[in-house]
Amino acid sequence: MAELIVVTRDGREHSVTAEPDSSVMEAIRNAGIDEVVALCGGCCSCATCHVYIDDEKAMLPPISEDESDLLDSSEFRTERSRLSCQINCTVVPPGTRIEVAPEG
Known about the structure:
Strand order of the largest sheet: 2-1-5-3-4
Number of helices: 2
Order of helices and strands: EEHEHEE
Low-confidence stretches: none
Oligomer: single chain
């Protein structure tokens, strides 16, 4: 199991244990952090699970066209933006900081 550091919007850090083969979104929600709404349930059809991933060592898959289009709808998109439903925890190194993006 991977240990992730999730930073909520108020700046607090939470240590989150991710189950094998779960998405980052699932790991955050399973930890009781409700700032990742994930209205679509992980189907890549909303952007309510928008996060910033800090670790450059993460072997993240390229952003799909659908994910990129959804992230374009956020005024808070940065080069670190990803939809947490699209990232499998197995490609995120333990200790990676994942910051919940502002709403909007």
